[in-house]
Each structure stands twice: as C-alpha cells, then as structure tokens.
Write a structure and sequence with these properties.
Two copies of one chain form a homodimer. With 671 residues, chain A is α/β, with parallel strands linked by helices. Chain A has 16 helices and 30 strands. The first copy, chain A, has an eight-stranded parallel barrel with strand order 11-12-13-18-19-20-21-22. The relative contact order of chain A is 0.08. The mean pLDDT of chain A is 95. At the A-B interface, helix 1, helix 2, helix 3, helix 10 and helix 11 of A face helix 1, strand 1, helix 2, helix 3 and helix 10 of B.
Chain lengths: 671, 671
C-alpha cells in the first residue's frame, strides 16, 4: 500500500522507469562473469511519460572503491538503451543505471522544430536562458562563466544568436557543456546494484590435461610420485596445455576399497579409488604417502610454473570410512538406526567406500568452516584452481558462501564445477559462483545436437555466467563415439572441443593414445580404469595424437577468436555430416572458420554457405582460407564454397580467413 | 558478503532453490489480473542438491485474510513445477511458493528400488519406522495413533509388513497420512509474495458504446442532454452493449476554444472540444450546464442500469485556460518566462486550449490528492468505470498510487488506459494497474499483422496483466480501411474486434452508420468531427449495422469462448486475404471458429486447415459448423475444409462447432 506521506519529494516526482535490465542474474542476486580487460554491455528499457527527452548512464565501480564511474547509455530505439564499461581489475564490480529527463535536449528539439515550422521562439529563447543560468550554478567556475555569458546572449540579443547559429540555436561547445552539468533533480537510479565477478584470463581461456599421478612412473608396476609427474611436464608442455589437473592426492581408505574394474573385493595391492578420501595417514589436508610429501607437491607446482603450467586440484568433499573425520566428527555424518554410518547410495547402487557429509547436521557451521579451512590449506600451498567433484550433491548455499568468501580474499582462484546433472541445477551452480562448468558436450555428437547446444551456451543469458569447459573424455566417460570411431573420432572430438569452447581439457594419456576399450558393451566406463588401478602408458606409440594436439593448442594461442565464445556462429552446409562454424574476436580482425566431418568412417563433401556479413567479408572480393591444421591455402569467393573431408587424412579444417588479397587494383599504376 | 554467524540455522540447512516463478510481473512489484472465479496457474523451477524427492505447494490468501491456503504443485519434468488456485473474491490476493525435501517419498522410492534389486532392506525399514514415529508427533491424535502403530509394525514385524504390501511396503492410507504431516524443518519459502488483482467479470468481458451526449437530441440543432441520452438507451441496449462511455461532461473553456474541424477561430456558437475542461461554471467535478444537473447525470446512470448498461466516464486530467484550478492553484501549472502558463504542445503542434498539469510542482502531493478527490467524487455519483485519457502523459507513479488506493476501497472500479503510444509505455501502464488497455488493433489490418499482434497479446506474459480493449474506430481515429472499404469493411472490423477480443467498443453512431468521410485525404480525423461540433445522426438509415451488431453481441453473450482471450488460436488458410481463428472456453465445451475475408471488395475462397486436437475434434468423425451470423450449417470432416466469402453478402463466418453428430452407431440396435 503506497502511503503518500511516506513518499519522498524526489520519489513523488520521479518520472522515469528503468526496467528489463540485462544482464541481471536471478534478480541481481548473482554476478555476471568477465575477465580482466573485458567489457560489460548493459541494456535496459528506459522511458518517461510524455514527450520529454531522456538521458541515461551506467554507474559502475570496483567494489572496494566508493566512487561511481559513469558510462553513457545510447538509445537503440523502442525505448531500449545500451552502454558498456570495461573491467580492469580482478575482483568484483558493481553496476547500476541512472536516468533523468533531459530538459535541455527537450528544449533544443522543441526550438529546432518550431524554427523549421517558422514559429515564434522568443519565449523559448528566454526559457533556454533560464536553463543555461540554472546549469551555471552546477558548473565549475570557468564553465559557469561560459554558460552565464550564453544565457545573457539568449536573453538580451536573441536575434544575434539566431542569426549566427540558425536551426542549431547554440554552438556545439555550449551543448557539450550543458551535457556536462545535467539537471538531475528528479533523476532515477535503478533499485538494484548488480554484480560482476572479474577473473583472470585463464578462467576464460585454458587447455587442461588431467592425469593420474600414480600412473606417472616411467617403469611399469611402480606407484608414481610427484617427482615422476615433474618428469612428465615437458611432454605435457610440448602439447601446449596450461593446466594440469590431478584427481585427489590424499590417502585412500582401505575399508570397502574397490578392486580393479570397480569390483567389490579388492586384493591387498589394489590402490583403490582416489575419490575414497581419508585413511590412517590423514584426510583432506594430507597427501598420499606414495606420491610424496607436502614439499614434493609444492616443488611440483613450482616446476610446473616454469613451463607456464598451473596445477589444478580436486576438491571432493566426501570421506572413506577410514577418514579421521569419521572418528573425530561423527556428528558430520548421518547415522542409521543400526548404529552404522550412512554410505553413499543412489538406489539400487551402493557406494560403501564413500560416506557423504551430512550438511543437515546441527554442526553445519563447523562443517562449513572446516571445508573452507581445507580449501585455504591448499591455497596456502600455491593451488589457485580447483576442480570441484559433484558439487550438485552438496547444498547450493554452501558453495555460494565458500566461493564468495574465498574469492574475496583470493580473487584469482578458479572453481570448476564437475556437475553432470539436470540443466537447471547446472545453471544454478554457475550462477551462484562457479568460475567454469562441465557441460553435456561429451554426449553432443550430431550436427543438430552441437549446433543447438552451443547456440544455447553462447547466445542466451547463459553466456553471462556459465563458462563451458568441455571434455571429449574423462576417467568416468568414454563415449560410444570414441569407442567405435577409431583415431579419426578422437581427432573430431578434439577439434570440436578445442575450437567450440575456449576452455577445454582431455584426460590423458588415455586420450592422446586413443584408448577406446570400454569395460563392456553399452558402458561408458574404461576397461582397466585408472580409477581403480595403476596404468602404464606407452607415450611414444606412433598412433599418438600428441603432435596434432600440440598444433591445435598452438592455433588456439595464436588466434584470439578461439580465446572466447562470444562470437561463435554456425553456417549451413547441405551435408548433415559436415558441421561448419566460425569464431571471431570482437574486432573481427581475427576470423577462424572450422569445418568438421562428423562421420569418422567416410569421406563427406558439401557446399558451405557463409554469412559473409558476420565475417566481415565482401561478396565481390576473393579471400584466402588458410588451413592451420594441414597448412593448405584455398582462394574462395562469395558465400558458397566447396569442402571435402576424408577422415582418414584429416577430418577437419581449421581455416584462418585472410580478407584483403592484393589485386591489380592495389597497384598504384592501375589507375 | 555472507556472514556465517548471521545465517540462521534454518537458512544454513535450506537445500531447496525456487526460481523462475511465473507469473511474476516486474520482479513481483505489480499484480497479475484475474476476474472472480478464474484460476491462477503458477509455475516455478524447484530443485535441490542430490537425489532427494521434493514436495512443493502454492501458498495463497485473500489479502485481508491472515491465513494461507495451500494448493499442491506437480512436477512437469526438467525441474519445472506447476499448480493452480481459484480466486473467488473481488480485491487482491497474494501468493508465494513453499518446497521441502520429502524424506518419506525419498525413503519409499529407495526401498522400492532395493526390493526390486533383491537387496536387504532391514535397516531401511527401521529408518521408515523412525520417519513414521517422527510424523506421529506432528499429527492429530487419531492420525498419530495410526502412524505409531505402523512404526511399531515396521520395527517389530518387518517380514509381515513386506509380505502384506510387497514392493509398496506400506498401504496407501499410510502414505496419504504421511503426506498430510510432512517434515518441513528445512522448508524453503520463495522470498517474494506476489499479487493478483481480482476484478469483476466486466473487466474481462464487455461491449462498449461511446457517444457524445450533446449529439443525442432527437431534433437537429439542439444541444443534447442527459435526458436525451436516456431516450437513446433502448436503442443502445437493443444492440447489446453493456457499457456506455461518455466523453468529458464538464464545462468547456472559451479561451482559445477550437472551432469546427479543429480550426483555431471558433464562432460564438461553436461548442468546443469536451476535452478542454473547465470554465466559469466549474472544473472536473462540475457538469456542462446544457447536459443537465448532477441529479440528471445520476438519473441517467440509474436508467442505464435498468437496461443492464453501466456508464463509463472520461478522466482527462488537463485544464482549459478558464479552469478554476488555473486561478486557485497556479502552482499546479508550469509558468513561462513571459509570465504565461505553458500550454500543451508537441512541437510544432500547439494546443493553446489545453493547459497540462505540472506533476513536477512542489505541491505535487496536493495535486495528487485533488485528482483522487475528483475520481472519488464521481464514484460517489455511482460511476465505477473510468476511461482514462492519455495516461501516458502523466507520471507512472501517480497512476500506480491512484489506482491502488482507489481499488483498495472500491475493488469493483475499472480503469481503461487510453494510451496510444510506444509498446513499452503501454505495457508498463497495464502492469502498474490499469484494468484494461487500448491497443494497436485500429492499425492492424492484414492477416500477418492481426495474427502476430493477437499472438503477442494472448500467448506471452502480456496475457497475465494486459487486457486488450479494441476499437474499430474512435472519435480521433477513422482508419483508412474504414474510409475506403465501404460497409463490408465496417462489418469486417466489427467481427474482428468482437471475436478477437473479449473487450471491445465502437464509437457510435458514427460506426453503425458507416460514417467514413475523413477531413482530408491521408488524415484519420473525421470530417465534421463531433469533437468540435454537435452532430445529428439519422439512426434509421437502412445501411445501419445495428442489427448485425445486435446479432454479434448476442453471439458473444451466448458463447463463453468469446468471453476471454486465453484460448485463441490461429489456423492456416492458403488465401492471404482469409483469416481463420478459433476460441474455446477452458473446458473446450464451447468452440467458436471465425473465418473473415479481409478484402472488403472481392470474394475470396480457400481451404482452412484446422488444428483438430486443439478444438477437441476427432479426425474420423463428421462435425457440424453452424454459422451463427448467417444461420447456415455445414458438415465438415477432417482438418481441411473449403470456405468462400463474398463481402457484399457476408464477409465473415462465426461458426459454432458442434462435435458429436449422431450416426447409425449411436442407435442401440446398431450393435
């Protein structure tokens, strides 16, 4: 109920509506995401009653700074306005909008129309003098003098002013001065302050390599260590990866330990799943003794850094029955009527080797604090990237709190949500703060599926908060496409991952060695999965994709178009097995065009049909497409061009488009 | 920044997210609209972490009542939920949502799956006993006894329970009892209470007739009066209208009075525009002396009521230079530097006979109160419907306040927004509270235009708050289509208005007498417009549409399908001049199918293609279409059927579809 007495003098006379603001996530509760140096484009419906002109700005500030900065908003038509600002610092920004009736612009427009219609404007010029006079009180001293002078002229010598400036009435410098000192008495500020989380570049653009440290020993049969991982760094760096992600490195429980191929009965020398965290040797802040000591881990991180590689850690908040928490904090677990602790289950599946934490415990505050302490412990060791295991099985509010409080102290930290779950849950986890998110890419194989999914990721509000991180394989997922498609299938999925998404990763060496054996027909689990045993890989197999991977990662580094997802665009090809898409940078100086044959078995050909405008191409001019994968160059003209891809030779082109080819017209003497 | 110490024990363990609630207008600031007896369907995304089952309800209450009522929400899939409730009283309702983890449902599902998989469930049955035992504490005495009994059985005789109920574990009555006493410890309530404005039926379904009282005298040359209007009532009632809307009935200013055809120089006996309100005789609460006295107006209202007709008044908040406010409240007007008062203008157009009120005045509170006093004055005379003139030239907050505070005391009052302006302004006026809204219908003539516009009005969020009120003509708008299309054009626009929209009106007698003369070529203004002179109409012209109008209004009254817009659906016809659409009531018991020939000059024919499913028709059965306009009946079968419309005979069909025609199979002895 609106009580007139309680409405302020300003609110009662505020005539502007600001509505439909974009971006705005969950009514402004959550932040949009950017990286340092990116811009935030803001749109809103802004309008007033009647015919008055409106002026509007975006207000924005780095959260720790008190002072708002301004960026202008421009009318797009249909009462929609748009403006933008740059974010230049790690951390959080706030933004909102302000708009007001632009009396001076309304006045200028009215006078102009009356002059055109030959009407008398003598009273209008007096009104103009009044507006200038009022503005002079808001102006800095020297500006005030100019405004006062023009106010006097309008008042005392209107004919002279009209004779000099005609339909414009006043010179441009006076108009600019007036814009500098608007009358904001009844200005309206949008009722919410919206948030931007600004991450570092690696949050937007990264190539991850996942490997099991225990499988890194050079000789078969030995448990690998961080030292062995260090020896593997040159190999990983040569492929061009910039993040190495390790599954949990903690002591592994013995009770109900799983055997090879996820069998219930482990033999005494089975190493167990690294996700069954905690044993007599310690829990989430301890290191598996066979991997090394804490110093060895820190040394590994430092060594990786010399290769430009960052180490990402797994945050898997769950416990083996042997975890110290089980003894020290029984109140953090759910107890069954028979006195036992409730293990993880998704009936009829049972995971007796894992106890989930009970977030409904009365001691939830202590639990939250402890899990944050764990996270900070690893930050103290130098870790700045966390891959979070199954975040969708812990409460949303916990993650929002953890990520926000951690990022307030360490804004450079990256959290990747490993949630393969329902669409709304995945979106919400991204909204509440996860820096990057796993996707459905692994199960999107056909042209329709890929086009539809990546259009959703890049052309809806999702692009404001959901940073896709795509994986052709993971230790849990060997897709049917990879099982059955042979080496060409691995190349297809690699090219798609690396060019459709600025963040991608592979689980190696299984991927580059084209490991395709599943545990059984119809299963996506690896045969002899590293989750349950130590594997020894022959990295020098001639089949290895390492050179192609290196080439593709180099292409990504050289081409800004591939370092973000905003300017992704699909182009029609008649053949349903051929997928064609382009990516450009914001300026369209860098244009990458990808054509992939999705059929790993047969050669396919077809005519691509490019949206030339989007690519900044002139329909009348020849342009060169340079295949950065195979190094071939072709001259194309117009929208329709022929492609043919034999998967045994190369299942994809990654073209760089070079626009302006020289012709005879470029020579001086051609004229 | 989230402070853990400040998070309550409930909030910290709340695991449910409620988001994407529909309907929700402007973040819940404004109300959706319904009429008494309608339902409100509510949808939301509701989900939790992990695998637990969720239960959810809509909470709703009449605003004056403290007690929330519950309506269940059902899962639609993809974490979307839907429920509904009925609104049965005039005024405002509130609604919100509540959801919780359904521990009992999760338990039942788990036990069921384990039983199917042949797993041991002995501990699970003890857990079930615990859940039943806990519920018994929340239950009423006799329910508690039942729950306790079953808890004991599960604890002490699990084999017996399993043997009796198998995979269901527990009998249906226990499951129902458990649903009655859910564990809502960590229930989450949506953080906003949303609003429903409930109007009376006439807000949703009405047929308006606009006329100038001063033109109602039976003989030419005399100024009409309310008495003359009373004599006109049988004529209006015979056509089937239920609202008579009068342009302003107040004294008219003399200063700068406009002459015939909007000329600047009025002759002494020109009556002036009724919208130039206020003279020596009084302002917004006075009545034009030649129309009669206040008692005459009240008598007219009472007489109209006996015909089932309500009188709608014009609220035009603006003043002639002679209005008493100008003298008594100069502070409510804007003053120009030469001392004169600012008249209305939209440069280069000038309206010297109208002074707008200055809503930016320091005395805005007094101004708002006075305008509300004016509104209440007419409510006191018995007026309950206001057509608001140009609401888009007064501040939005003023309208929100006026409408909300008036409707709190008089929830039966209807405000129609006469705003022909930009789309977002029109939508916002509807959102902030106007009961009905003028539309762009007048300028939507082609099949594409009509289809697109009415799809927007009825199939987007607009249908929650924007009630279209469509007019084929108004005193300001004689569309080109009517100017050039002859009598068939008038019938076409009448049929479209009366069947596309549940609320429609005509400005008569200009409309039924097919007045089509414009002031000049290219203008939409009437020649000899009643806005500036008194007209005398020959109501008994043989051309008059009054009988067709009567027929159409009768069809509207007889068919619930035409009394709302929710179930409007367009059906393809190959001929671009033929428009085909259907309307049904919610139950689809009443189905109306309209086919209109939009070309007023030529006969057109084509095959309509009906969406049989939407109309509840069986593709294999013959159905009858009964033309309620011409009374012809046709037997149709399947989706494609032939229509042919000669505009000189009848430019439209308004079919009622009768489904179940008897066949030999309906006879008992057929078997």
């Amino acid at each position: 109920m609106i009580d007139l007495a309680q409405l302020s003098d300003e609110a009662g006379r505020a005539r502007i509506i600001i509505s439909g603001v974009r971006p705005e996530i969950e009514h402004g509760r959550f932040a949009v995401k950017r990286t340092v140096g990116e811009k935030v484009a803001v749109e809103a419906d802004i309008f007033t009653d009647g015919h008055d002109a409106v002026a509007a700005v975006v207000l924005y500030r780095y959260e720790q700074e008190a002072h708002w900065r301004l960026a202008p908003l421009h009318a797009l038509g249909n009462d929609r306005w748009r403006g933008q600002f740059l974010v230049t610092k790690l951390g959080r920004y706030r933004y909102t909008l302000r708009a007001w009736i632009d009396r001076f612009a309304s006045w200028r427009e009215g006078v102009h129309k009356k002059l055109v219609a030959g009407q008398d404007v003598s009273v209008e010029l007096l009104m103009g003098a009044r507006l200038l006079g009022e503005a002079s009180f808001r102006a800095a001293a020297e500006d005030a003098a100019v405004l006062e002078e023009w106010a006097s002229l309008l008042r005392d010598a209107p004919e002279t002013v009209l004779a000099q400036h005609g339909l414009e009435v006043l010179p441009a410098e006076v108009v600019q001065l007036m814009a500098k000192y608007p009358d904001q008495r009844f200005a309206v500020t949008y009722d919410k302050e919206l948030l931007v989380t600004v991450d570092r570049e690696r949050a937007r653009f990264s190539a991850w390599y996942e490997l099991f440290p225990r499988s890194c020993a050079p000789e078969p049969g030995r448990h690998g260590s961080f030292k062995d991982c260090e020896a593997r760094l040159p190999y990983i760096a040569a492929m061009g990866f910039d993040v190495v992600y390790l599954p949990p490195i903690h002591p592994i429980g013995r009770t109900h330990r799983k055997g090879k191929n996820n069998t219930l009965a482990a033999s005494p020398d089975d190493p167990g799943s690294p996700w069954a965290i905690g044993a007599a040797e310690g829990g989430h802040t301890a290191i598996h003794p066979q991997l090394g000591a804490l110093e060895d881990f820190r040394h590994f991180i430092a060594q990786a850094r010399t290769y430009g590689i960052e180490v990402a850690m797994d945050l898997a908040f769950q416990c083996s029955p042997d975890h110290p928490y089980v003894r020290e904090h029984p109140e953090w677990f759910r107890h069954r009527p028979d006195g036992s602790i409730q293990y993880a289950e998704n009936p009829p599946k049972q995971y007796q080797d894992v106890y989930p934490l009970d977030f409904e415990t009365n001691e939830w505050r202590a639990l939250w604090e402890e899990l944050r302490r764990v996270t900070c412990f690893w930050i103290d060791q130098g870790v700045r990237i966390f891959r979070v295991d199954n975040p969708h099985t812990k409460p949303f509010h916990f993650w929002a709190w953890l990520i926000e409080t951690i990022k307030q102290r360490y804004p450079e930290v990256i959290f990747l949500a490993e949630a393969f779950t329902r669409p709304k849950v995945m979106r919400y986890l991204a909204q509440l703060g996860f820096t990057q998110s796993y996707t459905y890419f692994t199960w999107r194989n056909t042209k329709d599926e890929l086009t539809h999914y990546f259009t959703e990721l890049t052309k809806t509000d999702m692009q404001e908060y959901f940073r896709p991180h795509v994986w052709p394989n993971t230790p849990d997922i060997l897709s049917e496409y990879l099982q059955l498609g042979g080496r060409p299938a691995f190349i297809v999925r690699l090219v798609l991952a690396a060019t459709l998404s600025a963040n991608y990763g592979i689980y190696g060496p299984a991927f580059e060695l084209c490991e395709h054996r599943a545990r059984e027909r119809g299963s996506e689990e690896y045969l002899n999965s590293e989750k349950y045993e130590i594997r020894h890989w022959n990295l020098h197999q001639p089949e290895s994709l390492k050179d192609i991977i290196a080439r593709i990662n180099a292409i990504r580094r050289d081409n800004p178009a591939l370092q973000q997802n905003q300017y992704l665009s699909f182009h029609p090809v008649e053949n349903p097995q051929l997928l064609c898409y382009s990516k450009t940078d914001e300026s369209r100086a860098n244009v990458i065009l990808v054509v992939v044959n999705l059929d790993p078995h047969h050669t396919h050909a077809g005519w691509v049909e490019l949206a030339l405008d989007e690519l900044g191409l002139d329909a009348r001019q020849t342009y060169q497409v340079h295949d950065l994968l195979g190094d071939a160059r072709y001259l194309w003209q117009g929208a329709r061009n022929y492609v043919e891809l034999n998967p045994q030779v190369a299942p994809a082109h990654i073209f760089r488009i070079r626009r302006h080819l020289r012709t005879e017209r470029d020579f001086d003497y051609y004229m």
